[in-house]
Write a sequence for this structure.
C-alpha cells in the first residue's frame, strides 16, 4: 500500500496531546511511520512537504519532518499536470499547499492521502481523487489492522491441522 502523509499528519506528534483526538492521531501517525520503516507501507512524498517544514521555526519539528520524508520510496516532482490539478482543487476551496499535496498524491497514484486537517479531509472526500482515498491516520491504521486480521484468519483457516 502506498501512503502520502501531508505536513499536518507528519507534525501531529508535536501538537498538544491533552486532546484525545490529537493523541490518537499522533499514535496512528507514529504507527504509519513504523510500518514504513518496516517496509510494510511505501511512503510517497513530493516537493511540497519538503518546503513546508523548512518554514517551521522549531528545529525539532523540522528534523523530525525531514527524517520522515527521507523514508519516502518515491518523490513526486511538480509538473504541469500536478499544477493544473492543484488549480482545480484550489477552485474547489482547497488552500494552495493542500491542493499541491493532494494533487501530487493523486498524480502519483498513491492509495492513500493521509491528513489530520478537517477542512482538507472534508474537501478531499468531496473531490475527484481517482483511486486515492483521503482518510485520517486513525482510519488508515484501523483499515490496516482489519485487513491484517482478515488475512491472518484466512491463513489460519486454510491450514489443516496435522494428525499425530
Amino acid at each position: 500500500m502506498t501512503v502520502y502523509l501531508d505536513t499536518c499528519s507528519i507534525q501531529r506528534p508535536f501538537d498538544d496531546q491533552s486532546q484525545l483526538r490529537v493523541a490518537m492521531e499522533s499514535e496512528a501517525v507514529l504507527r504509519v511511520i513504523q510500518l514504513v520503516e518496516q517496509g510494510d507501507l511505501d511512503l510517497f512524498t513530493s516537493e511540497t512537504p519538503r518546503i513546508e517544514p523548512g518554514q517551521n521555526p522549531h528545529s525539532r519539528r523540522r528534523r523530525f519532518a525531514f527524517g520522515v520524508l527521507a523514508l519516502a520510496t518515491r518523490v513526486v516532482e511538480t509538473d504541469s499536470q500536478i499544477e493544473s490539478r492543484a488549480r482545480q482543487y484550489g477552485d474547489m476551496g482547497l488552500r494552495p499547499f493542500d491542493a499541491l499535496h493532494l494533487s501530487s498524491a493523486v498524480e502519483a497514484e498513491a492509495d492513500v492521502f493521509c491528513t489530520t486537517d478537517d477542512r482538507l479531509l472534508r474537501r478531499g472526500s468531496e473531490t475527484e481523487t481517482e483511486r486515492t482515498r483521503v482518510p485520517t491516520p486513525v482510519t488508515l491504521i484501523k483499515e490496516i489492522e482489519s485487513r491484517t486480521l482478515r488475512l491472518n484468519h484466512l491463513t489460519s483457516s486454510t491450514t489443516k491441522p496435522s494428525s499425530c
